[in-house]
Amino acid sequence: MFGSGQNLLNLSFFAVLPVALILWYVYKRDKLPEPPRIVFITLLLGIGVTFPLGILIIALEGFLETLNFGEEASHFFMSFIRAAYLEETMKFFVIIFYCLHLDVFDEPMDALIYGVAASLGFAVIENWEYVLGAESLEAARYVALLRGFTAIPLHALAGVFMGFFLMDAIFQKHNRKFYLFLSLFFPVCLHGLYDLILFSENISDYYIFILLIVFLIRAYFIFRKERNSQTWSNIKKTKVIPKTSDVVFVVTLTFVILFSVNYFFNFVMY
Description:
Blueprint: H1 5-28, H2 36-48, H3 50-67, H4 71-97, H5 108-132, H6 137-149, H7 151-171, H8 176-199, H9 206-228, H10 244-268
């Protein structure tokens, strides 16, 4: 399809390059950097969750066929539940069940670093699949370029905001469950809105760039604030790891909210 092994190698390189650049940039924002080995393991775990995710997606697609959704409801289901909810939940599990238990996870900035690393791990496989799944070499190059400025930053942003709310859930004394909920719900909504724009024929794709620019600016100020507050004497070493029951509740509540909205689109509006 791509003419030679060299072309395949080049395309694989360009599929991974934006992920590496974004992760390097985010990693350098940390004044007290995390061990590279741990960050890399988090990236690999983000890659690893794509395999069980594939099984869940197949199951959901069968479920979707039995519900006979209307067009708009189907778009919502595909964007917010099949894609955003499942993907962000798997990344969420990586952070909750691996990263939070690390001794080196000892300050708010760490939530941002590991959130982005887990998200970009997933983005590596997804981007590689889209690029190498293109019909021609020219199309593959176009996909690699386009996703380098859209889908990859979107995944990174989802990781930023997951970490942003999670830092309050584990380092603050008040409203921990609420922030734990937001650490999953907000990235799902951001990711779902991005996908909904892509799926919908009635919304211009230019809104994707507006969406990304707005949240990239917000992410920049989040990193700047946390970086400016980083000192050896100001590290919050006391963290509260969420209970498994709270994690299950958050994951379930997010699904119930999304499915309820989907139900509204399907059975009320149509």
